[in-house]
Amino acid sequence: MMKCEIIRDLIPLYLDKVCSEDSRKLVEEHLAECSECRKYMKELETELEAVKQKKEEDLDEKRLLQEGAERMKEIGKKSIVDKMIIVDTLLNFLLIVTAVVLCKRQIDIEGADAGYYIAAMVFSFGFIIAFFVCDCITLVQKWKRRKMQTEWEYKQIPICESYAKISIGVKVIVVFMLVCAACILGFSQFGGMFSI
Question: So where does this one cross the membrane (predicted)?
């Protein structure tokens, strides 16, 4: 019995392959004779295997959680841009309709100003159409990407997404300028009320 206790103390070292050559031979000789120690070693091997498997599962779970968190951040960023592109597409469409309606009306402008006005309208109308087309291409690409679940199954046109973002930026700048102009006009009107 005393020998079994010594062997059981050596079995973990034997399983980890860190015991001396003499200890290894002693354990193997004893295991050949003692069924209780063989049973103990099998139980210990089973426990060690379960612990190793649990560690691997924990590592896989942590890796999956980390990948999921990174993916959610990426999706969150993309969804904001996607919504902005949809709003921008609608704004561009409304601007195109407005420009067409204004062009259909007869404009009575005399002299050199008429040429500048028409050139400005054509120039801005061209930009609005270009932005609208790029927004539409970007939205179709994003729709296809979601449908196919991969980005490389069709030819991408990244320049269109860049133009869509530029279009959003232009609209933000224009809105900022309009707000500033409204504030300046409002303050000048407000200041005029109190002047003598």
Answer: 80-102, 114-140, 172-194
Angle at 162 (CA atoms; ends 157, 166), nearest 5 degrees: 150
Mean per-residue pLDDT for 179-191?
A: 70
**CB burial of residue 92 (10 Å; 0-12, 13-18, 19+):** buried
- Of residues 35 and 96, more confidence is placed in 35
Structural domain boundaries of the chain? 1-77, 84-170
- Share above pLDDT 70 across residues of the chain, in percent, rounded to a whole number: 71
Taking the C-alpha atoms of residue 20 and residue 23, their distance in angstroms, rounded to an integer, is 5
User: Quick check: 121 and 96 in contact, CB under 8 A?
Assistant: no
DSSP string, 14-54: HHHT-S-HHHHHHHHHHHHH-HHHHHHHHHHHHHHHHHHHH
Return the structure tokens found at 134. 């790029």
Cite the DSSP H helix spans in 1-157: 2-16, 21-33, 35-104, 112-148
Report which of residues 171 and 77 the model is more confident about: 171
pTM of the model: 0.42
Tokens of 31: 């295991």
Residue position matching structure tokens 């046109």:
157
The C-alpha atoms of residue 137 and residue 132 are separated, in whole angstroms, by: 9
The whole-angstrom separation of Cα 101 and Cα 49 is 77
